[in-house]
Write a structure and sequence with these properties.
The structure is a single chain. The chain is α/β, with parallel strands linked by helices. It folds into three domains: about 100 residues, Response regulator (Rossmann fold, 3-Layer(aba) Sandwich); about 80 residues, Helix Hairpins, CATH 1.10.287.130; about 150 residues, Heat Shock Protein 90 (2-Layer Sandwich). About 50% of the residues lie in helices and about 20% in strands. The strands form three sheets. A five-stranded parallel sheet has the order 2-1-3-4-5, sandwiched between helices. The chain has a five-stranded mixed sheet with strand order 7-9-10-12-11. Strands 6-8 form a two-stranded antiparallel ribbon. The two termini are about 40 Å apart.
């Protein structure tokens, strides 16, 4: 059991030695005996005692009450006063330093032990109360932060829905009132606006649903074996069909056919998001590439998969990249290009769910490279 460290502050040398002997007999460790207030302050800082026995009447300009006040303010060490004077004025002054006990000289050994143990117990209770208060404060701040985030989330969702709803409302009103007077081309344009707005809201609802999975309990990871080259080629073929001839998609695969244990849904969602963004934020006619390779990580040289999605588009300003994976964040240079700012936030959550990591390298006007690293075998997940 660790000994309780006691600092004795007493200006009577013989009395101080007697107190120290009593303390040692009772199992306490005396870390110092000093006779002046200023010396007591410095010694307390140096020795870090668990409790201090402080005589009120000390040599020098700093008396015991002033020394105790400074020590408790700086170190929060419990103080027990020792004095032959127990008058009202002395008691009132001693309260300024929040003493944990009071011994009137001469005192008996059992009084000394009882006073020290009660003071230490009181200090322990205060420390526990402080911890509880700190935890309560943290919980309150956390609750306030969650409440604020939820409010902001609802506000952002409402804002994102407002534009497509307005488009649908205006287009349907125009078609209802003047549809027979519009040319076929203009009617088709209005129907196209309605269709695009519905698609935008559907995409937003899907993203919100995926994002809510992380808030309300992460979805499970279902591993299955896939041929990586075949998987990536099929995915690019699907993306190319949607993109038609606007962009050229290139694939750089593994030299040999490789089977890996991966959650197909997670990998598919993340890669589609990154490839779709690469196309959306790149000029027509430019190239978007997908690559896959293997790397070794960790002290055990575990094999990981490394995916890269690269474009030559508008890029992302360097000073904004720290916010890139935050919900609803969109870079300042996207202009009128549509988007919700949820895709990358969801992608990062899914990559982390899979035990992996995602990185971004980009400069405004120079294109972007997203890198995903995933373990090839299930590992402990860090959320």
């Amino acid at each position: 059991m660790t000994q309780v460290k006691v600092l004795v502050v007493e200006d009577e040398a013989i009395s101080a030695e007697n107190i120290a002997i009593r303390l040692q007999k009772q199992g306490y460790a005396v870390v110092g005996i000093v006779d002046a207030g200023d010396v007591a302050i410095e010694t307390a800082k140096r020795t870090s005692p668990d409790i201090i026995l402080m005589d009120i009447m000390l040599k020098g300009e700093v008396d015991g009450i002033r020394a105790a006040s400074e020590i408790y303010t700086q170190l929060k060490v419990p103080i027990v006063y020792m004095t032959a004077f127990a008058d009202r004025d002395t008691l009132e002054r001693s309260k300024q330093a929040q003493p944990f006990g009071y011994l009137v000289k001469p005192f008996k050994p059992q009084e000394l032990r009882a006073t020290i143990e009660i003071a230490l117990h009181k200090k322990s209770l205060e420390a526990e109360a402080d911890r509880e208060m700190e935890n309560a404060q943290k919980l309150r701040q956390h609750a306030e932060a969650i409440s604020k985030l939820n409010s902001e989330f609802v506000a952002m969702i409402a804002h994102e829905f407002r534009t497509p709803i307005s488009t649908i409302s205006l287009s349907t009103e125009l078609l209802e009132k003047r549809g027979d007077k519009l040319s076929g081309e203009k009617r088709e344009k209005r129907f196209k606006h309605i269709h695009e707005s519905i698609s935008s809201m559907t995409k937003l609802l899907d993203d919100v649903q995926l994002l809510s999975l992380d808030r309300n309990g992460s979805p499970s990871v279902n591993y299955s074996n896939i041929d990586l080259n075949i998987f990536c080629e099929d995915l690019l073929e699907e993306i190319q069909f949607v993109a038609q001839e606007t962009h050229s998609l290139r694939f750089s695969g593994l030299k040999e056919s490789t089977t890996a244990s991966i959650d197909i849904k997670i990998l598919r969602h993340v890669l589609i998001n990154l490839l779709s963004n690469a196309i959306k934020y790149s000029p027509i006619g430019s190239e978007v590439s997908l690559s896959v390779s293997t790397i070794q990580k960790g002290s055990d040289r575990q094999e990981w998969l490394k995916f890269g999605v690269e474009d030559h588009g508008i890029g992302i300003p360097v000073h904004e990249q720290a916010q890139l994976f935050s919900s609803f964040f969109r870079a300042s240079n996207v202009g009128t290009i549509p988007g919700t700012g949820l895709g990358l936030a969801i992608a990062k959550k899914f990559v982390r769910l899979h035990g992996g990591q995602i990185y971004c390298q980009s400069e405004a006007g120079q294109g972007t490279l997203f890198t995903i690293e995933l373990p090839t075998e299930p590992i402990a997940q860090n959320h």
